[in-house]
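Worked example 2:
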Amino acid sequence: MKRLKRWYKKGIIEAGCDEAGRGCLAGPVFAAAVILPSDFYCSILNDSKKLPEKIRYLLRDTIKKKAVAYAVAMADNNEIDDLNILNASFLAMHLAINQLRIKPGFLVIDGNRFKAYPSIPHRCVVGGDGKYLSIAAASVLAKTYRDDYMIKLHRQYKNYGWDKNKGYPTRKHREAIVKFGITPCHRKSFRLLTG
């Protein structure tokens, strides 16, 4: 496994940002912002999509213990419908950055687009969650916190398999929409059914 980089800009307090849940049919989009210490290293930390669930949760504990600062925020399905998923993802990232107890001097963002955060310069990095430790850490937090949220929602709406699919468009999820209709948690602006 290749080594992830510690920072984009050395000598500045840098926060990595990522989101989880953009492609889902239901539930919020979550985002995290993480500032890691300059000497942080963890050989197994990587893009959360490439990690087994058990490892993601172990890494979450490590990140929370060792991060200089971290924050997690979300934009709910109604905000997604109002703003569109891209802008709702930016909103969730901004909310996470707002909550950091230390203000970073620079942001590294996973992806190719971002709405500039006031007074903090940024750089977008395509595939950044597989290149920079801070973005990988943010991806792990955003993914695990969102998964926990969807498991809680599953207890209210048990027909849709959210404990397993976490709101993503699986066959079971779409079949449940046909059979039971949509819930207040579904994203009405998304194509909920195929065909």
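The chain has one domain: 14-180. Strands lie at 14-20, 29-35, 69-75, 106-110, 122-125.
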